[in-house]
Model the fold of this input.
Amino acid sequence: MSEKFVLATHNAGKLAEMKAILSGLGVEVISPAEAGADVEVEETGSTFAENAMLKAKAVCAAAGLPAIADDSGLCVDALNGGPGVYSARYGGEDLDDRGRYMLLLSGMRGQTTRAAHFSCAVACAFPNGDTLTAEGRCDGAIAFAPMGDGGFGYDPVFLVPEKGKTFGQLSAEEKSAISHRGKALAAFAEKLGTYLQK
Ligand code: IMP
Done:
């Protein structure tokens, strides 16, 4: 029999990605709605790992099932690591993805230090109080202009030097092979596999 885990997200893409990665472990991933645990969690942590754990614990408590959550964002060296945990809210509620990355580009105008990285933390909370965490990071640079229209968020302005392309110019497969989220999920799947064998 497969074990049920709730993925604390409203994002259908993330749910599908997690289902595919964890199916090999005999783990069934369901949405908060399917678990009757559709709770709103305020992301009040100061790190990606803290926010991921806040979400995982809240959904685990509401569902009475193990819950997995992730939190991610873009950290720009010239902006002292910002927007970081505020990536989704950068520039305020009224901006869409394009508005946010255009604001980032204008804040970086004239800036020669372009180094940046994406970070992703995955957390899992079990009803018995056990927790697991994993992190992934992808280093790159902020482009001088948007390129490509694939992906989401800041993808068109995040340049991967070894590819000579932005995330927005990569296919979904090419991106997840090197992305912060791909790395964090792979590390998490390995930890979960070890945990489930115990
Ligand atoms: P969350 O982890 O889904 O809350 O995402 C936080 C925010 O970080 C997103 O809304 C995006 O703005 C940004 N972000 C996280 N991962 C990516 C990515 O892979 N590409 C582009 N933007 C991302």
User: Anything to note?
Assistant: The chain has a mean pLDDT of 94. Helices lie at 12-22, 48-63, 97-107, 172-178, 180-197. Residues 70-74, 87-88, 118, 151-155, 167, 179, 181 surround inosinic acid (CB under 6 Å).
